[in-house]
Design brief:
Helix 1 crosses helix 3. Strands 1-2 form a two-stranded antiparallel ribbon. A two-stranded antiparallel ribbon has the order 3-4. It contains five helices and four strands, in the order βββααβααα. It has one domain. With about 160 residues, the protein is of the alpha+beta class.
Amino acid sequence: MAQFEPINFDGVTETGINIRKVVGWAGADLEEDVMLLQTVFEYISTGTGPHVFGMEKPFKAEVRGYMDLDTYHALGEFQLQNAQFLLKDTYRRIHPASYKGRVIRNHFTSRLMTITRLHIVAQNAAMMQGSLDYTQDLLELEPRLARFIDRALIES
């Protein structure tokens, strides 16, 4: 399920986003995972501009939690525009990360998973909007995420 979890960047721990199953082409597309990604896409496209997703206007899902063509497009465009920062070619698919017990080194120059790159871009969007914690902003943008986040905390 969609969740917030600690990510260790060179010894500095930050709260980031994660999903439980693959989202996108041939993925599980769990409702809460898709909802989280769509909310992050909207947040980023509002904060830094829709160009991040190759769009003319900010991303807005018609039905949150449902994988639609706009979401596939946004995911694919994000990966294309960030290809030099990503680990491998997983076009229009996003995999969950396994952050527990890991330290991500040189995250400014190393290739990252798409979910981790989304975290970094969401942090930039937060700064552009005058916010310090984008994860809390996501809960305000999509309050239904709270039930999945709370459940993830209880189950961990």
